[in-house]
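Q: What residues go here?
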């Protein structure tokens, strides 16, 4: 079975969440071994919060969970792509569909991903 090499990069590996249907990149976070095991056990994305130093169930507070459809691993066993179904429509804690909601094009910054919810209402 696929198993990331958690010995690299101090036990944390990048995990890119990508919409399984559209291919849209929604977010990037980190997984440690605990997050990996919990993701496999539950079928929903779990990550390691570097700022809080704790396991993080994506959508545990907001309800915007990520159902795992498949997991891809790179040739060095140290980066993951999670093909997911984004429940609730938003991956970003700022309320946008994608964490990559800002774009710089021809020297101009713009919003390129829709705002799905008001974070002040969700994270009271």
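A:
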């Amino acid at each position: 079975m696929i198993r990331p090499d958690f010995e690299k990069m101090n036990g944390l590996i990048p995990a890119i969440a990508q919409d399984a249907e559209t291919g849209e990149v929604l977010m990037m976070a980190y997984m440690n071994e605990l997050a990996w095991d919990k993701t496999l056990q539950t079928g929903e994305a779990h990550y390691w919060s570097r700022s809080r130093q704790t396991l993080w169930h994506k959508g545990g507070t907001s309800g915007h969970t990520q159902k795992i459809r498949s997991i891809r691993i790179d040739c060095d066993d140290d980066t993951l792509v999670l093909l997911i179904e984004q429940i609730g429509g938003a991956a970003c804690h700022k309320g946008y569909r994608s964490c990559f909601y800002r774009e710089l094009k021809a020297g101009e910054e713009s919003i390129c991903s829709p705002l799905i919810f008001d974070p002040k209402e969700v994270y009271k």
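A: Context that may help when evaluating the design: The mean pLDDT is 97. The chain has two helices and eight strands.
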